[in-house]
């Protein structure tokens, strides 16, 4: 191939290539117009989509409107009211939109129609824009702004042919509007698709938004989160998913793809309450100083850069942990009532005093407390008690010297982690030295771990300490707490009472270190309903008593 000459494309060809850099699909139009409506201070937003968004996208709001003197500038490229002309204004963006490209891109890719009126202005203005042709006229309309984009990509056949099917696009538009509802729950929202209302929401709090998007059963199983720069809700430990698709984060009001560090912070906030491999539902609004984030690193502004991501992650982790610690987290026994009727909770988070009633299958304890029947997994409960005992005593005394240092084979990954974590391990009494040739020399053990009667004690400690988990200390103690915990066939009434006493003294009694529940509870009213009883026994007590923590709080 010969070297081609370089030439500058004529303007009309360049426009055909560039049109849609901001608007490449109907979803982009919806996002940009909703951002504009929110920036205008709207409290009511109505979104209408026809033909998968290719035929029509309309967003109507009751926001501040565009003054008559500026409305003709709205469809021009880089015309915006959200940034000052000074370059430094880009470093402190306080709005969702700011580039001044949304309406221009919509006019390049389709037919743009804007009708707007500020509340104090007499009469509205109407703008028709297609390509570079802009026409302004007077009109009559209520206060606010209505933006309509028709025949998207009709003049760009190549782009039109590559659009997703209408059903797929509408699924993503509905999901996008759901995210805006979750992060802006105090507004009126309505989405209409091909004349059918798909999503409505009346002003409420984050729990009400979860009810609008995911249904009342999910809303009844979320807890309020409130911390430094972090607000929202997080689900109770029993409401989890195998994927992280319901972990939603906004930064300064902008729904974003959550950085992995923030998703990990949420999961770490649960501690041992979540089993491995699952994720909770959460809606978290993160607030940072405008100069501490950059929303201009992604064409669709779905990714933001944070100046202090570790600090934000620490605040998220602390807020989630505080929300969970403030509520009772005992899970319900399998429902005896219809599953659609949620069970309310006791109004405090303290673990109750339990009276042992008996032992079932030499593994489960039946106990009574707060008027309810409790079933305790003795192994999980004993494991939790041992884990907290080891956590308290680790590093309390001088490390135990091995009579003879032990040589252990390590993989290359384990050797790399040894060099990274060596000082940390030695800080809690584990002295492990690189001996060369893929070997490590174990010289001391933490005094709390040395006397444990656990098979392959040294190998298990080193394996967990040099594993790929983010918290080697917790991994070691969780592994060592499991082995000596009571197993099936080892339980009697005497040991059962000791397990209950130890569990009641735990700081986090609701789950074992691996995330399995330690206790389940069943209210007497459930039993009465299941047996068809009515009358004096059909009285709300214990788990069935009216909650004191506010409407919609579930204790099951």
UniProtKB/TrEMBL annotation:
- What protein family is recorded? Belongs to the DNA mismatch repair MutL/HexB family.
Has keyword S-adenosyl-L-methionine? no
Task: Note the Pfam families from the entry.
Answer: DNA_mis_repair, HATPase_c, MutL_C
Whose protein is this, by species?
Deinococcus xianganensis
Q: Tell me one GO biological process term.
A: mismatch repair
This protein is called DNA mismatch repair protein MutL
Disordered: annotated span:
533-556
| Gene Ontology terms, MF aspect | ATP binding; ATP hydrolysis activity; ATP-dependent DNA damage sensor activity; mismatched DNA binding
The record's listing under InterPro entries reads: DNA_mismatch_repair_CS (IPR014762), DNA_mismatch_repair_MutL (IPR020667), DNA_mismatch_S5_2-like (IPR013507), HATPase_C_sf (IPR036890), HATPase_dom (IPR003594), MutL/Mlh/PMS (IPR002099), MutL/Mlh/Pms-like (IPR038973), MutL_C (IPR014790)
Its function?
Answer: This protein is involved in the repair of mismatches in DNA. It is required for dam-dependent methyl-directed DNA mismatch repair. May act as a 'molecular matchmaker', a protein that promotes the formation of a stable complex between two or more DNA-binding proteins in an ATP-dependent manner without itself being part of a final effector complex.
Q: Where is the composition biased (Basic and acidic residues)?
A: 535-544
Show the PANTHER family listed in the entry: DNA MISMATCH REPAIR PROTEIN MLH, PMS, MUTL, DNA MISMATCH REPAIR PROTEIN MLH1
Q: Give the NCBIfam families listed for this entry.
A: mutl
Q: Which residues form the DNA mismatch repair protein S5 domain?
A: 210-325
Q: Name one GO cellular component term.
A: mismatch repair complex
Question: MutL C-terminal dimerisation domain location, by residue?
Answer: 356-492
């Amino acid at each position: 191939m010969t070297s081609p000459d370089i030439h500058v494309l004529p303007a009309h060809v360049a426009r055909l290539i560039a049109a849609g850099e901001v608007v490449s699909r109907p979803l982009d139009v919806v996002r940009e117009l909703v951002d504009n409506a929110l920036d205008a201070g709207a409290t009511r937003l109505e979104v209408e989509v026809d033909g998968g968004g290719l035929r029509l996208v309309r967003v109507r709001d009751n926001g501040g409107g565009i003054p008559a003197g500026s409305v003709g500038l709205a469809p021009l490229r880089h015309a915006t009211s959200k940034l000052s002309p000074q370059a430094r204004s880009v470093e402190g963006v306080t709005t969702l939109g700011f580039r001044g490209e949304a309406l221009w891109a919509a006019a390049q890719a389709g037919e743009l129609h804007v009708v707007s009126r500020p509340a104090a202005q007499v009469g509205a203005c109407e703008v028709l824009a297609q390509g570079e042709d802009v026409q302004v006229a007077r009109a009559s309309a209520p206060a606010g702004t209505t933006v309509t984009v028709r025949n998207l990509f009709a003049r760009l056949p190549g782009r039109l042919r590559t659009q997703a099917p209408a059903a797929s696009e509408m699924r993503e538009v509905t999901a996008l509007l759901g995210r805006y509802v979750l992060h802006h729950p105090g507004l009126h929202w309505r989405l209409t698709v091909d004349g059918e209302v798909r999503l409505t929401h009346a002003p409420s709090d984050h729990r009400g938004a979860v009810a609008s998007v995911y249904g009342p059963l999910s809303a009844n199983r979320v807890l309020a989160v409130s911390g430094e720069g972090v607000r929202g809700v997080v689900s109770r430990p029993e409401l989890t998913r195998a994927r992280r698709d319901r972990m939603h984060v906004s930064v300064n009001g902008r729904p974003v793809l959550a950085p992995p560090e923030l998703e990990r912070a949420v999961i770490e906030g649960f501690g041992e309450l979540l089993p491995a491999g699952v994720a909770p539902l959460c809606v978290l609004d993160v607030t940072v100083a405008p100069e501490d984030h950059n929303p201009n690193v992604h064409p669709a502004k779905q990714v933001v850069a944070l100046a202090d991501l570790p600090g934000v992650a620490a605040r998220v982790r602390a807020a989630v942990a505080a929300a969970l610690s403030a509520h009772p987290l005992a899970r319900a026994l399998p429902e005896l009532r219809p599953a659609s009727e949620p069970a309310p909770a006791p109004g405090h988070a303290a673990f109750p005093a339990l009276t042992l009633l008996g032992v079932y299958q030499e593994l489960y304890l039946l106990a009574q407390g707060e008027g309810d029947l409790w079933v305790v997994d003795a192994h999980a409960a004993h494991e939790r008690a041992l884990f907290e005992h080891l956590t308290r005593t680790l590093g309390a005394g001088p490390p135990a010297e091995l009579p003879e240092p032990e040589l252990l084979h390590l993989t290359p990954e384990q050797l790399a982690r040894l060099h990274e974590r060596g000082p940390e391990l030695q800080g809690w009494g584990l002295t492990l030295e690189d001996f060369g040739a893929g070997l490590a020399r174990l010289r001391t053990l933490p005094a709390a771990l040395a006397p444990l009667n656990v098979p392959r004690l040294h190998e298990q400690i080193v394996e967990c300490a040099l594993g790929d988990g983010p918290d080697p200390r917790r991994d070691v103690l969780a592994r060592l707490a499991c082995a000596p915990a009571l197993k099936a066939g080892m339980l009697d009434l005497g040991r059962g009472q000791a397990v209950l006493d130890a569990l009641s003294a735990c700081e986090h009694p609701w789950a074992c270190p691996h995330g399995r529940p330690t206790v389940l509870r069943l209210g007497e009213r459930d039993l009465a309903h299941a047996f068809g009883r009515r009358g004096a026994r059909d009285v709300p007590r214990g788990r069935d008593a009216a909650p004191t923590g506010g409407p919609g709080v579930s204790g099951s």
